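User: I'm preparing a small set of examples for a lab meeting where we compare how different chains pack in three dimensions. I only have the primary sequence for this one, and I'd like the structure in token form so I can line it up with the others. Please keep the answer compact; I'll paste it straight into my notes.
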Amino acid sequence: MPKEPLEKNYFEESFMYSNTYFFIKSYFQFTKEKLEVKVPKLLLFLPIGKIHDSYSFDDISEIKVETKPYSTSFFLGILLSYWAFDTFNKSLVWGFLFLLIGISTILNAYRTSIIITNKSEEVINYPISFFERSKGEAFVSKINSMLNGKE
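Assistant: Understood. Below is the structure token output for the 151-residue chain.
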């Protein structure tokens, strides 16, 4: 006779960690008792593990999706890309490297996060890709409706 699970998963979702790290996923799982989050841990540009967080319903004060533009990143990316085209005359490898870093910096100029605020007003940001903002908003909307007892 199979054992009955203690908690039934209501829903779970995975998101791209960022625009440039499209191959790395963050996982959010909403269960009967809590919200579990698994996000990658990065050292500079290298993934070195995962961070596991868990929030009970009683501890969550607010959850939302927020996008912020970072003009410094955008202009730095433009500058690096321009510099890359100037460097192509001297070295193809360095020019390509600067162009890659410049485009990556431009892509990350708009950063989207799922923001969880707990009862003690501590704010925790979990970055997701800007391109998955609508998917994140749908996920957060589901969570908010579950927390408010609408489903």
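A couple of notes for your slides: The CA atoms of residues 59 and 120 lie 8 Å apart. Residues 1-59+128-151 form one domain.

User: Perfect, thanks.
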